[in-house]
Amino acid sequence: MTVSELKSAFQSAYGKPAEAVYFSPGRVNLIGEHTDYNGGSVFPCALSFGAYLLLAKNDKNEVSFKSLNQPEVLSLPFDRLTQRLEKSWVNYPLGVFAQFIKRGVSIKQGYDILIWGDVPNGAGLSSSAALEVVTAYALNDQLGSGFNRSELARIGQKAEHEFALVNCGIMDQFASANGKKDHAIHLNCDTLDFELVPVKLEGVKILISNTHSPHKLDSGAYNERVAQCKKAVEQLNKVRPLKFLAELTEEEFRKIESAITDPVAHKRARHVVGEVQRTKDAVKALKAGNLKKFGELMNASHVSLRDDYEVTGPELDAMAEEAWKIDGVIGSRMTGGGFGGCTVSLVKDEAIDNFIKQVGEAYERRIGIKPEFYVAEIGDGASKLA
Ligand code: GLA
């Protein structure tokens, strides 16, 4: 939808014009998976699709939430803005209101809000982070609360923890807040220091393959991985003081890994330590224009997520395996939380059509679901559009 179509939709929904329009993107992570909550580095880019938020003030002492993607409509008085709802899409923007209030910002103005998103739902491309960050960006602008983009990302992450009950890391919200067109973000998730790295891919595109798998990464499986990493840190602490797994090089890990007596926690930790190294190596390779190396690291990342982290599943594995067979594929791996969702591949321009045909057919034959493909356009982070 265009901004003017969205404005008309707002007019129809509330019978008055929108006063402002905001946007915040989804993201695709090139490499560095399940490292963010372990203090490691990640390398995502913001996408050109995301969440839009339109609003106008009201004088009803309440905040109304409507979405063009969801049927449920809700109006909440100010004193209900800190309470999580049992089951509702509104928890995402509401969780952000609650975080503002927690940080001492008082909400004394009512708003009518309309949301629309074009990130495919459940695809692991951060539709929820886009919604959280667009809400945080809009509120910050409206209330003049002065939070910077990193703080807005933190607010979005905390909303996810407390209202969506997923103990996620900072990657998705940070990429949504800080993305830059044609750049990937090399983010240290412990310090939040980051570097924007130009993604100049001569003759190569970033292709996203959506498995449309019904098995989404649910909060249970995700939170379980977070807990297993914490357990590995606790066991390692018997032999070396450590806050995050990402503090260890692969060599240091090999010296003390036997302290992790739980075999599952051990595998999880091995993935994290290896993935942090792969991410750093991949950033170097990209800066040096060595795409071949970058692609090899992407493939190795998938294998580690499959064997040690166990978050791929048959659909993502089929998609990656079929991609690896195609001439002109530089690298391919699952992206995001895992289980369902998408893979990300670097594909030479001349191989794109063949990729979509061959991988599409083979995936459908193996899994029985029709996949979808998008050529990624790397866009900017959160902004006010009108
Ligand atoms: C989800 C979470 C992120 C990150 C990824 C895995 O997208 O929201 O914080 O942990 O999974 O890398």
Give the arrangement of secondary structure elements.
Elements: H1 3-14, E1 20-29, E2 41-42, E3 44-58, E4 62-67, E5 74-77, H2 91-102, E6 110-117, H3 127-143, H4 149-164, H5 171-178, E7 183-188, E8 194-198, E9 204-210, H6 219-236, H7 250-256, H8 263-287, H9 291-307, H10 313-324, E10 329-335, E11 342-348, H11 352-367, E12 372-375, E13 383-384
The chain binds alpha-D-galactopyranose.
Structure description:
This protein starts with a helix and ends with a strand. It is of the alpha+beta class and 386 residues long. The radius of gyration is 21 Å and the shape is globular. It is 41% helix and 22% strand. The protein has a six-stranded mixed sheet, sandwiched between helices. A four-stranded antiparallel sheet has the order 10-11-9-12. Strands 2-7-8 form a three-stranded antiparallel sheet, sandwiched between helices. The protein is built from eleven helices and 13 strands. The longest helix has 25 residues, at 263-287. Strand 4 and strand 5 form a beta hairpin. The model has no long low-confidence stretch (mean pLDDT 97). Helix 2 (91-102) packs across helix 3 and helix 6 (219-236) crosses helix 8 (263-287). It has a domain at 3-197 and 380-384: Ribosomal Protein S5, domain 2 (2-Layer Sandwich), CATH 3.30.230.10.
Would you summarize the structure shown here?
The protein has helices spanning 3-14, 91-102, 127-143, 149-164, 171-178, 219-236, 250-256, 263-287, 291-307, 313-324, 352-367, and strands at residues 20-29, 41-42, 44-58, 62-67, 74-77, 110-117, 183-188, 194-198, 204-210, 329-335, 342-348, 372-375, 383-384.
